[in-house]
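Reviewer comment 2.1 asked that we show a complete input and output for one of the modelled complexes. We chose the magnesium ion case, as it is the one discussed in the main text.
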Amino acid sequence: MTALLETRGVWQRFGGLVANSDVSISVGRGEIVGLIGPNGAGKSTLFNLIAGVLPPTQGSILFDGEDVTHMPAAARCQRGIGRTFQVVKSFETMTVIDNVIVGALVRNTVMREARRKAHEVLEFTGLAARADVLASDLVPAEKRRLEVARALATEPKLLLLDEVLTGLTPTEAQTGVALVRKVRDAGITVLMVEHVMEIVMPLVDRAIVLDLGKVLVEGKPSDVVRDPKVIKAYLGD
Ligand code: ADP
Ligand code: MG
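Response of the prediction step:
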């Protein structure tokens, strides 16, 4: 069976800076794949290329059997690519439920249906009790969960998570880990960026390490953490 997502020889240049350099990765259906690497490695840039925020300078992106390289972000979201942002982009002056309805409207143009979907997602993510509070009143861990909830409301096949577990207390991070597993068990493929290896490695089926814009190593988490190239990249961070 073909991969759900594939990037083929993807490059992203910002002027003289090469943020992604010949990146070819694939994510199989039902996998949780970790995209890790030091700060500035190019992880968020690759997410932006996959989600369609930016067109790659070179290379192609295939999703669910289709070449989406030149497809706008909204169309990719319709195809089933859902994402969170490293910098939380919730609408602070809106309630939690309304934030999630914004996501649900991508698929359900009937307001009543979108609201029903949003409530379902809030139950799923453990935010139901916070439905009517303003997003600005959530604690940071809840804001991260709201980001996930809004992405889930778009009913993705692939969920891109950018550092949703970073900066949380150990207990909050474990709640986050459990949510990611639950997402996968619901049949959604996950590609997650994390800077902190200790959090992601026990969770992912496969890890891909980016360093200086390039794929440094990929494989089973237990092999990746022992790889001398990976240790060197992190120590040099
Ligand atoms: P990571 O998410 O792995 O920390 P990023 O993808 O955010 O890394 O950044 C990779 C490199 O690209 C960094 O050097 C960053 O400064 C640069 N970069 C990212 N986005 C832009 C942009 N829009 N314009 C110019 N440089 C950028
Ligand atoms: Mg980043």
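Residues 43-44, 86 surround magnesium ion (ligand 2) (CB under 6 Å). We note this here for comparison with the apo prediction described in Section 3.2.
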